């Protein structure tokens, strides 16, 4: 996925965002504590060994900053490649990150275990970041980009077309205008919401679109 029609991220704004060097691929990820990164399962679905993955944290520049190797990774056991469901994975770092470093931080996780209603609710402003290409088939961005979108209800025609299971997948974009999105290279990056506690909360992982 790519950030299209976004803008450059500010210094120390998204200190939990990391770039992942996955063999010959670029993906994003999110720091959830000093030893673990959340990313998309499809980023790691290439017969990889942990040694094939490098994590770069604490920099706006792609593949720069604090580097860590990976001791293990865990793809969701129910990940469905064809339907893109449960497209989530955990990466365990070989050494903990120093979160007292002002260039590094962890994102908050949702406090709800389950809900019968859509979360976040439709039209909620959301934000995503990444180093993916700035146009389809173009070059990756050397500097972290950000774009604001909105949660889109699963019952809308657009979302019914692109998601298979609304209990497992979240639809986001700018409807009906479009024009702002993610694409190649942004996969695995965070989809974030600024919650009522004035904290940035991880509500999704960039998967496809």
TrEMBL record:
Write out the GO biological process terms: proteolysis
Q: What is the lineage of its organism?
A: Eukaryota, Metazoa, Spiralia, Gnathifera, Rotifera
UniProt entry tagged with the keyword Disulfide bond = yes
What PANTHER family does the record point to?
ACROSIN-RELATED, HYALIN
Give UniProt keywords alphabetically: Disulfide bond, Hydrolase, Protease, Serine protease
Q: Where is the Peptidase S1 domain?
A: 3-209
GO MF annotation terms:
serine-type endopeptidase activity
Q: What is this protein called?
A: Peptidase S1 domain-containing protein
Top-level taxon in the UniProt lineage: Eukaryota
The organism named in the record is: Adineta steineri
